[in-house]
């Protein structure tokens, strides 16, 4: 498998070339030259465990590593000592749908499924190349803690993580800021997630600075992140669709389009996914797009702060990969569309083209979230977090008794205690090791939303090595 850029300035790159990078050198996003088909081999994976499914998918995309090396990394990642869920990713039937539990890793969020693998892949490649990197990331809530936990103690990696100051839940902030490790630096940006994301992209686009300081990425602009997430869409069909003898629908709470794009890749590979349901909160740029064909990004000041903060995003950084596919992989069209994209310059796709993609969408509000959390608990005795509730609410619009609906759980309720208590009157239980996390000393620097300030921090980190 070789890799290209959505903007045409990179071709014939290897997995090793793109693993440690963020944006492609031309400012585009990395994608495989083509999507391999698994239609002929999918049946052979029925009954396989999660590590075996992961190995079977990853080996199709990773060149330069032997099957033994890939299998060793996969088995070390997806094991009971790292993930607590039954079979790593448990899938259970709740009422008229299925819930896929992606939050049984070290930070209680779905990001662990990819990030734990990414940390081990980084170790392998950096040791092989005898290199060090500085990972620059942005988080709206869960990516930061998942990345930092995955990189703790990895001597060849330093992490600089940007987060929007004052917008995460206290639990989310404490997960990141209570880490006291020499290779982990947290910077709280005075702004919203999109400001953090813009800084990461600006620094990645500065080729000279990026090379000088060996800048890498762990956000979903990193292809390795997306690839790891493809696996659990295959797993969803194997656990639900194969038993039912049918396709499945999958509902995904999303703001940055990385998680649901992985579902698109799985669908392109031949996994029997009929519909991908995009669930938005009040920052519903993506819902507007799939309903109208117009992708209108919003200004920073128009981002709404919600109780599902990981989705408080107005510019979906992975969206370019999807549009590249819709443009029949025309890099010139893609480059033009995204270089001109602004709040007053929307991107437009014909409605009939969108209809053929299998995407549908919906919006969930604060009222919907609270009612859904309370309703699921009352009806099934199950607590779900605010983001999962957004997905559960939107999924209700698309339930079809002939096609199983799988809802992705994206975080545990303990991460959003205040919202859960408002909805149900009870404080969600915390897994062992998380009691009093908000009271631990925090290590974070508040900075203005300026790329030059972040550059200075990176320079200081590397000077101190």
Question: How does this structure look, described?
Answer:
By secondary structure, this protein is α/β, with parallel strands linked by helices. It has a domain of 219 residues: Rossmann fold (3-Layer(aba) Sandwich). A six-stranded mixed beta sheet has the order 3-4-14-9-10-13. A five-stranded parallel beta sheet has the order 8-5-6-7-15, sandwiched between helices. The longest helix has 22 residues. The relative contact order is 0.14.
On the 0 to 100 scale, the average pLDDT is: 94
> CATH class of the domain at 91-108 and 224-424, please?
Alpha Beta
Q: Helix fraction?
A: 40-55%
Q: Which segments are poorly predicted (pLDDT under 50) over 5 or more consecutive residues?
A: none
The number of E-state strands comes to 15
Strand order of the largest sheet: 3-4-14-9-10-13
**CATH T-level topology of the domain at 91-108 and 224-424:** Rossmann fold
Q: Count of helical segments? A: 18
The radius of gyration over CA amounts to 20 Å
Q: What is the overall shape? A: globular
What is the topology?
Blueprint: E1 3-5, H1 15-19, E2 30-32, H2 50-58, H3 67-77, E3 91-94, E4 97-101, H4 111-129, E5 133-138, H5 143-151, E6 157-164, H6 170-177, E7 184-190, H7 193-205, H8 207-212, E8 215-216, H9 223-244, E9 248-253, H10 258-268, E10 273-280, H11 285-292, E11 294-295, H12 319-326, H13 331-339, E12 347-348, H14 351-355, E13 359-363, H15 366-380, H16 386-395, E14 405-409, H17 417-424, E15 445-448, H18 451-463
Parallel strand pairs: 4-14, 5-6, 5-8, 6-7, 7-15, 9-10, 9-14, 10-13
Antiparallel strand pairs: 1-2, 3-4, 11-12
């Amino acid at each position: 498998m070789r890799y290209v850029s959505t903007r045409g300035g990179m071709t014939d790159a290897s997995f090793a070339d793109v693993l440690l990078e963020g944006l492609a050198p031309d400012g585009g996003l990395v994608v495989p030259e083509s999507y391999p088909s698994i239609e002929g081999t999918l049946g052979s994976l029925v009954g396989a465990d999660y590590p075996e499914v992961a190995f079977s998918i990853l080996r199709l995309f990773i060149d330069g590593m032997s099957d033994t090396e890939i299998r060793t990394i996969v088995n070390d990642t997806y094991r009971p000592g790292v993930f607590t869920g039954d079979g790593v990713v448990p899938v259970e039937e709740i009422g008229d749908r299925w819930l896929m539990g992606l939050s049984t890793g070290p930070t209680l969020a779905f990001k662990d499924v990819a990030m734990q693998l990414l940390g081990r892949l980084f170790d392998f490649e950096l040791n092989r190349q005898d290199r060090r990197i500085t990972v620059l990331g942005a988080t709206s809530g869960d990516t930061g803690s998942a990345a930092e936990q995955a990189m703790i103690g990895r001597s060849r990696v330093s992490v600089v993580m940007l987060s929007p100051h004052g917008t995460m839940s206290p639990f989310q902030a404490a997960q990141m800021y209570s880490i006291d490790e020499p290779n982990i630096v947290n910077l709280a940006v005075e702004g919203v997630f999109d400001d953090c994301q813009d800084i990461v992209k600006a620094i990645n686009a500065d080729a000279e600075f990026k090379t000088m300081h060996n800048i890498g990425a762990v956000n979903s602009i990193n292809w390795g992140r997306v690839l790891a997430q493809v696996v659990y869409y295959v797993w969803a069909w194997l656990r639900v669709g194969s038993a039912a003898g049918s396709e499945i629908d999958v509902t995904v709470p999303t703001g940055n389009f990385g998680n649901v794009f992985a579902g698109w890749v799985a669908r392109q590979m031949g996994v029997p996914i009929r519909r991908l349901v995009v669930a938005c909160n009040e920052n519903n740029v993506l819902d507007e797009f799939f309903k109208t064909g117009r992708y209108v990004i919003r200004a920073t000041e128009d981002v709404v702060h919600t109780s599902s903060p990981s989705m408080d995003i107005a510019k979906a950084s992975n969206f370019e990969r999807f549009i590249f596919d819709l443009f029949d992989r025309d890099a010139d069209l893609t480059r033009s569309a995204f270089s001109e994209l602004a709040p007053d310059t929307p991107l437009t796709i014909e409605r009939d083209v969108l209809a053929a993609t299998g995407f549908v969408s919906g919006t969930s509000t604060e009222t919907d979230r609270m009612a859904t959390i309370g309703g699921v608990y009352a009806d099934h005795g199950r607590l779900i977090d605010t983001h999962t509730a957004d997905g559960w609410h939107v999924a209700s619009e698309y339930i079809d008794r002939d096609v199983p609906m799988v809802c992705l759980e994206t975080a545990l309720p303990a991460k959003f205690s205040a919202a859960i208590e408002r909805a149900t009157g009870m404080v969600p239980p915390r897994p062992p090791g998380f009691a009093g996390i908000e009271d631990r000393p925090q290590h974070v620097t508040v900075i203005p939303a300026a790329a030059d300030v972040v550059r200075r921090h990176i320079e200081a980190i590397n000077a101190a090595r």
